[in-house]
Amino acid sequence: MRNTKRYPVKDTNSLWQVYKTVSFWKVLKNVIVILIGRYIPFFGLKNGLYRKLLKMEVGKHTAFAFMVMVDIMFPEKIKIGDNSIIGYNSTILAHEYLINEYRVGEVHIGSEVMIGANSTILPGITIGDNAVIAAGTVVHKNVEAGTFVGGNPMRVIYTKEEMDKRKQQHH
């Protein structure tokens, strides 16, 4: 289950009211930092920008591939462990704006997690250590540590036990 907090709105849809939710200047700064980060090929510099300017928790040796899109409204709600890879053109969301409400939730991505290209992580999600997310997956619910998931809708491809068994067979 996703862990998000709901905020009801009245009159117009929640996105129309976005600057009642978050400062225009914060969003502008975040957009500039994220656009630079999407193109910078230097992981250390990119992680430093995300840590200092977006207030994200980014672990040691974590790599954001080319064109990764992090949440522009609430990037400070994204926490990623050590030595993880966020694949090409993936998106990590910490908010969602709906017609009658908006929702905000922290995203926790563990250490040594592999997120395949073009994946989308929805708000309020926890992905455990050593999990593998197949390319193109929409992560709409929590992922247990060591599990391999994929698809849309996302499903478990291999449990942690099956992954451990496969690793032993290849060594």
Automatic annotation (TrEMBL):
Pfam families: Hexapep_2 (PF14602). It comes from the Bacteria. The chain crosses the membrane at residues 27-45. Keywords: Membrane, Repeat, Transferase, Transmembrane, Transmembrane helix. InterPro entries: Hexapep, Hexapep_transf_CS, Trans_hexapeptide_repeat, Trimer_LpxA-like_sf. One of its GO terms (molecular function) is transferase activity. SUPFAM superfamilies: Trimeric LpxA-like enzymes. This is Acetyltransferase-like isoleucine patch superfamily enzyme. The lineage of its organism: Bacteria, Bacillati, Bacillota, Bacilli, Bacillales.
